[in-house]
Amino acid sequence: MGVRRLIVFGLLLACLAGALITGRELFYNLVYLWLTVIVIAGLWTWTAINRIRIGRHTRALRAQVGRPLEERLSVRNTSPVPKLWLEVRDFSNLPGHEASLVVDSLAPHRERIWVVRTLCRERGRFRLGPLALTSGDPFGLFQVTRQVPQTTNIVVYPMTVDLPDFTLPLGPMPGGDALRRRTHYVTANAAGVRDYAPGDSFNRIHWASTARRDRLIVKEFELDPLSDIWLFLDGDRQVQASLPEPGPEEQFRDVLWPGRAEKVALTAATEEYAVTVTASLAQLFIRRGRTLGLITYGRQRDVVPPDRGERQLTKILETLAMFRAQSRVPLADALALESQQLPRWTTLIIVTAAADMQWVLAAQGLKRHGLRVVAVVVDAASFGGYNRNAGVVEALWAAGIPAFRVQSGDDLVSVLSFGSWTSQRFGGDNAA
After folding, report:
1. In this structure, is residue 236 part of a structural domain?
2. Strand partners, 101
3. Dihedral sign, CA of 193, 194, 200, 203?
């Protein structure tokens, strides 16, 4: 476009010079012609992006690795003048999201709509937008760009796998030591009644007490007398490892697209496997109706207090979506710091890639203090790391702590099942 503009201006100057030197009418007519072309092109360009409306709509601001994100974009011409061409350029930072489009011949009061489906391959928080709208004249001499700064943030949750079972270690029931905590969920444990408060569900109204007291009375419930489950995700950056590219036997998720199917590979890194294991366990226990909490040591210490329900699962997945294994706190020190915060009979599931024996001793200390400890150990050596942690798994079993060993390319459903527990406990392949 710049070359064309230079050629037109060059021809204008040449014709003007010819007219002044020779005085011939032909050169004056050419000067008028090129001036008319430049003026028309300038006016056309000035009106090219006026009265253009751009819209973008995302079905949901939450997505998940291995699932498609769908976005609908539209360009509408509200002027009586047709637009020969419009370039919509998108500057989103979501990997693989290509929403840019060139719209040709947009008639007056007409709209062009296109749908972009992006397969999410990375977890985290991403930005949709901003946009840039570019157009020009039919001669290709000028162009103008208008920025559309509006942006939208989306959160991509980590991948999860549907675990059919994950057997927790047996232990004494909490009995009289159970913590009595009120909950907004309806459980089998009625704790009493109280006055109605705005937001209480009508199915909690105790009609007999309401009739007797002549005001709305609702029932209160307590959580079931089961111990809490805490997921502890270790993000010590010193123990992480990753492979340059996913191998053919990586963990995959089938993705159904309109008219076709694809597979998304889990990134071959200890961090991604640990996050996926944690998210999958959270999904399993929340669906079972258990009270679940989360502790992560990544860029900072993040804690999601124990609760149950889909809202709790959303909180955990959002925390895991932003998790990055950049902690400088060794796992043994982190367990020592958290040991005073966890009540007795709590089940603690540790997900780590650490291979040193110091944290095994710390886990034994937690067990002696009345906690039920389970470990999921991601083998960093299978991801290109230097330290093998098969000895850690054996030491955990010797201390009476169930341990699962996850390697690169393992089927997480099989590794975290009861059969895998039995094989690892009694010297199966994964314990070798």
Report:
1. yes
2. 88
3. positive
166 in a domain, yes or no?
no
Both tokens of 150, joined, read 């509006």
d(CA 430, CA 422): 11
Which of 39-43, 57-61, 216-220, 372-376 shows the lowest per-residue confidence on average (mean pLDDT)?
Answer: 216-220
pLDDT in tens, 234-277: 999 999 999 886 544 455 555 544 444 456 778 889 999 999 99
**For 342-364, what is each residue's pLDDT tens digit?**
888 889 999 999 999 999 999 99
User: Which of 246, 258, 194, 181 has the alpha carbon at shortest distance from 220?
Assistant: 194
Total structural domains in the chain?
A: 4
Residues 41 and 186 in one domain: no
Give the domain range for residue 411.
229-431
Residue 275 shares a structural domain with residue 375? yes
Local structure of 79: helix, strand or coil? coil
pLDDT given for residue 269 in this prediction = 93
Contact assessment for residue 193 and residue 219, using Cβ atoms and an 8 Å cutoff: yes
**298-328 exposure pattern, b = at least 16 Cβ within 10 A, e = fewer:** beeebebebbbeeebbebbbebbbebebebe
**Distance between CA 96 and CA 99 in Å, rounded?**
9
pTM (2 d.p.): 0.81
Distances (CA, A) of 83 to 103, 107, 324: 9, 6, 47
Give the C-alpha separation, 88 to 303, whole Å.
Answer: 42
